[in-house]
TrEMBL record, chain A:
This is Carbohydrate ABC transporter ATP-binding protein (CUT1 family). Coiled coil: none annotated. PROSITE patterns: ABC_TRANSPORTER_1, ABC_TRANSPORTER_2. Residues 4-234 form the ABC transporter domain.
Automatic annotation (TrEMBL), chain B:
The lineage of its organism: Bacteria, Pseudomonadati, Pseudomonadota, Alphaproteobacteria, Rhodobacterales. Keywords: Cell membrane, Membrane, Transmembrane, Transmembrane helix, Transport. GO terms for cellular component: plasma membrane. This is Carbohydrate ABC transporter membrane protein 1 (CUT1 family). Residues 69-282 form the ABC transmembrane type-1 domain. InterPro entries: ABC_transporter_permease, MetI-like, MetI-like_sf. Belongs to the binding-protein-dependent transport system permease family. It comes from Silicimonas algicola. SUPFAM superfamilies: MetI-like. The keyword Chloroplast does not apply. The chain crosses the membrane at residues 9-29, 73-93, 105-124, 155-178, 205-224, 264-283.
């Protein structure tokens, strides 16, 4: 177990900057997820920690040791690749043993570790097979096994579930979380799948455009997104952004929508002027009469346990509402909308949440 | 849709027929004829009388045949094994380059392969000729005695093998490079994380994964080099052709210079079987080695 510190690291590919002066501390034993869209630099960042990409500037400390110039094999980290990267000509056992032999480990210790990993991952039967004789899920296990036997200071996962089918992905996700509980080693996990991030992470690092947008626990990131990007990226369906004018009126904050209707905001909410009001779909209610505003229903999606209703306000602003599974709303109806503004956020034109902007 | 088996057969036959006819005419028929010819005393043109196995029994005491067999074997050893390893080495080096530089370097290595053998002959004659070869001037400058490379039985086959490796290795480099590119980069990254140094990565990852390509390369070259003729023929001009004989050259000599069609056919049949036996043996050995890995 070890903590990992990234201290003002930068990385460019030619003239393209992919990581820009980034600093982050991963606590020892923590399960941290790098979440972001394609091209956000999350995989590059992981590969920089692994040593597969060089670090142009800044320092990397693994367990207190400076590692930015250390060879990948000497960093005491193990990586699970998206395509598993198993050696196709070696058996499962040989795949696991290869790295251990390279560091001159005694064969008794190697045998103990392989047996232990095979037991943890329930793959005793597979040890003498080659990767081509295994299913996708089994290969995934072997890749994890190859990492476990090293007993590394940290595990690095590069979108390891993206090649599995939906059911297996859910199962493996749970198993990975269990594994983390059991061995307690630091894990860094890269994904673009917010569900994976929300379900497994102790903390999520949201990356966008070569930099960190927010670091926080899953609930912090969900309930108090630091930027419009984070708010839109996390949560499905995505958060609604309503253009509003926020004013103070008799000590109360009032938001006026573009269709003229007004919404009362909590008095302590930061930010005044022309802003975007962010409201999660589950905080938008659909009522027959007496709503804060009205809109026309475009599409209704029945998902069984919940119903997603896509509404367009009078001024053309789209709003997504999430209601119970038995909603009777139909497309084409004009409905009233209510907004539970307790969890609402205001975002400025720079994309930052207003309380964040105020804090800066 | 219901399949009309008869119609499908007819279409298949129509499509195969042209190939089968040409193959029969230019390969199967001459091969059978060669076998039959080898049991006769026929001259180059025209039929001969049946002589049984005489053409074959004669080979056992034929000094020129002996020379041809050993020279061919020596040439194969000197061209196929170094040719494979040189090509592998170049491919490994070229694969470390990228972009246009890689293309340019690859083109340089491939360039000799597109040259006809007559040009190869001229280039190397200018280089190694005893009287005016560039190499001889370098030997003079270094104070080494000049070597009559193409006139000496010791140097002839090694020199032709070297020239052949230089000439043909571009193609082998290409094959190896294709094989190297087929190995996913992630496997090398996994090896780097597994603490494998450069030699370990080559011996435990690249070499085994490249084995099918190496086996293919080896087999192709083996078959090709056992049929060596052009280079030996050209470089023997004005030299000692009887000491430099290889199998195909001997067949040529017997048939076209000595007018012994039957005896030439017998040598050709022997070569035919050597090629088959060696290729099959080589293929099996390679498979065995692959399984062992």
């Amino acid at each position: 177990m070890a903590d990992i510190v990234l201290d003002h690291v930068s990385k460019s590919f030619g003239k393209v900057r992919v990581i820009d002066d980034l600093s982050l501390t991963v606590q020892s034993g923590e399960f941290i997820v790098f979440l972001g869209p394609s091209g956000s630099g999350k995989s590059t960042l992981l590969r920089m920690i692994a040593g597969l990409e060089t670090i142009d500037r800044g320092r990397l400390l693994i367990g207190g040791r400076e590692c930015q110039t250390v060879a990948p094999g000497q960093r005491n980290v193990a990586m699970v690749f998206q395509n598993y990267a198993l050696y196709p000509h070696m058996t499962v056992r040989e795949n696991m043993v290869f790295g251990l032999r390279n560091i001159g480990m005694a064969s008794d210790e190697i045998r103990r570790r392989v047996e232990e990993a095979a037991r943890i991952l329930e793959m005793d039967q597979l040890l003498d097979r080659r990767p081509s004789q295994l299913s996708g899920g089994q290969r995934q296990r072997v890749a994890i096994g190859r990492a476990i036997v090293k007993e590394p200071a940290a595990f690095l996962f590069d979108e390891p579930l993206s090649n599995l089918d939906a059911a297996l992905r859910v199962r493996t996700r749970v198993e990975l979380a269990e594994l983390h509980h059991r061995i307690g080693t630091t894990m860094i996990y890269v994904t673009h799948d917010q569900t994976e991030a929300m379900t497994m992470a102790d903390r999520i690092v949201v990356l966008n455009d070569c930099r960190i947008e927010q670091v926080g626990t899953p609930m912090e990131v969900y309930t108090a997104p630091a930027s419009r990007f984070v708010a839109g990226f996390i949560g499905s369906p995505a958060m609604n952004f309503l253009p509003v004018e926020v004013i103070n009126s008799d000590g109360q904050a009032l938001a006026t929508l573009d269709d003229g209707s007004t919404i009362g905001l909590p008095p302590d909410i930061a930010g005044r002027g022309r802003l975007d009001l962010g409201v999660r779909p589950e905080n938008v209610g659909i009522v027959g009469e007496g709503g804060m505003t009205t809109g026309k229903v475009k599409v209704v999606e029945h998902l069984g346990d919940r119903t997603i209703v896509y509404v367009v306000l009078g001024d053309g602003t789209p709003v997504t509402a999430q209601t119970g599974g038995h909603s009777q709303v139909r497309a084409g109806e004009v409905v009233g909308l209510t907004f539970d503004v307790e969890g609402a956020r205001l975002f400025g034109t720079d994309g930052l949440a207003q309380d964040q902007a105020a804090a800066i | 849709m219901i399949r009309d088996a008869k119609k499908e057969w007819l279409i298949a036959l129509t499509l195969i027929a042209p190939f089968a006819a040409i193959y029969g005419l230019v390969f199967v028929y001459p091969t059978i004829d060669m076998f039959l010819l080898s049991f006769t005393d026929a001259p180059l043109i025209g039929a001969g009388d049946y002589v049984g196995l005489e053409n074959y029994t004669r080979l056992t005491s034929d000094r020129r045949f002996d020379t041809a067999v050993w020279n061919t074997a020596w040439f194969v050893v000197l061209s196929v094994i170094p040719g494979t390893f040189v090509a592998l080495g170049i491919a490994l080096a070229v694969s470390r380059l990228s972009g246009r530089l890689q293309t340019a370097v690859l083109a340089l290595f491939f360039l000799p392969y597109i040259l006809p053998v007559s040009v190869i002959y001229l280039i190397w004659d200018w280089t190694l000729n005893f009287q005016f070869g560039i190499a001889m001037h370098i030997f003079d400058a270094l104070g080494i005695d000049r070597i009559p490379v193409f006139k000496s039985a010791t140097w002839f086959i090694p020199a032709v093998a070297l020239i052949t490796v230089w000439w043909t290795c571009g193609f082998n480099v290409l094959l190896f490079l294709a094989g190297l590119r087929a190995i996913p980069q992630e496997i090398y990254e996994a090896a780097a994380l597994d603490n494998a140094g450069r030699w370990k990565t080559f011996s435990r990852v690249t070499w085994p994964l490249l084995w099918p390509i190496t086996a293919l390369n080896f087999t192709i070259q083996l078959i090709l080099q056992m049929k060596i003729f052009d280079q030996v023929y050209l470089f023997s001009q004005g030299g000692r052709p009887n000491d430099n004989l290889v199998m195909v050259y001997y067949i040529f000599q017997r048939a076209f210079q000595n007018n012994h069609g039957g005896r030439a056919a017998a040598v050709a049949v022997v070569l035919f079987f050597i090629v088959i036996v060696v290729s099959v043996l080589n293929f099996q050995l390679m498979r065995f080695a692959e399984r062992k890995q």
